[in-house]
Design brief:
Helix content is about 45%, strand content about 15%. It is globular, with a radius of gyration of 18 Å.
Length: about 260
């Protein structure tokens, strides 16, 4: 049985990927949805045609990673497609973003992402695919998105290196690096600075893209064997200019953009 494992599946890109896999991936027999919110996962699962397993777990907890490994082993699972979409960000400076959120971003965007990927790799074979949701934030440091951008740079570099490690096994790995996505919870959660109210580090979100387009382009890039998918015009040019211009210049460009 070919399984698709999707983390962060209760909302946003994870939810969108689940719907796409259900309709468009004929080779997938079962979808595993992983996130903290069990009620949301069950609601999403009820709308899917394919057989679905709901795994409600907090991936920042070691016990959850162990549970995932045990479930994979007990089911003798073959993971044909893994999509790492769990993650979140907070807008603000060091005085605005709480210690809990700072640690949470590092734990979920970095540690949990790597451990989940490591858990599924032993259950993958030649021809299988891994998609890691990174961000265009991975291409440079970003003030007022400092920790989030750093965490995405980590997972981006991890994904690029993992691709080369798994090439001999025939497992394709793609890093997906979108710009702002307009129709998910990400921006709303990122702006919520807790006790300090709404963060003012980024004033507007122009040229945002819809989640559906990100998912379609990510799946195409994965199928085609691309190492990196920049699914929108901003992330495409951002990747290019981040290679050509000094980081100091890129930081000043971002300073202008975040004030728009």
């Amino acid at each position: 049985m070919n399984i698709a494992v999707i983390t962060g599946a209760s909302s946003g890109l994870g939810k969108e990927f689940a719907g796409f896999v259900d309709v468009s991936c004929a080779w997938i027999d079962e979808i595993w949805l992983i996130a903290r919110r069990e009620e949301r996962l069950n609601e999403i699962a009820s709308g899917l045609e394919k057989k679905t397993k709901v795994l409600a777990m907090d991936l920042t907890k070691a016990a959850s990673i162990d549970e995932l490994k045990n479930t994979l082993n007990e089911n003798r699972s073959h993971v044909s497609l893994y999509i790492g979409a769990a993650g979140y960000g907070k807008i603000g400076d060091s005085a605005t973003v709480s210690d809990d959120d700072t640690a949470g971003m590092i734990d979920l965007n970095c540690k949990a992402a790597v451990l989940c990927t490591s858990a599924v790799i032993p259950h993958m074979h030649a021809g299988d695919r891994i998609i890691e949701i990174c961000s265009t934030a991975a291409f440079q440091p970003l003030q007022y998105l400092n920790v989030y951008a750093a965490s995405k740079a980590f997972i981006y570099n991890y994904t690029r290196a993992l691709r080369n490690e798994l090439l001999p096994k025939g497992i394709a790995v793609t890093a997906v690096c979108p710009y702002w996505i307009k129709d998910t919870e990400f921006i709303e959660i990122a702006q919520n600075a807790g006790e300090n109210g709404r963060a003012a580090g980024v004033r507007s979100f122009p040229f945002s893209i819809k989640a559906e387009k990100v998912v379609k382009r990510a799946m195409w890039a994965s199928k085609t064997g691309f190492a990196v998918c920049t699914p929108d015009i901003v992330s495409f040019f951002h990747r290019i200019f981040a290679k050509l211009l000094p980081r100091t210049v890129m930081l000043y460009i971002w300073e202008a953009l975040r004030r728009l």
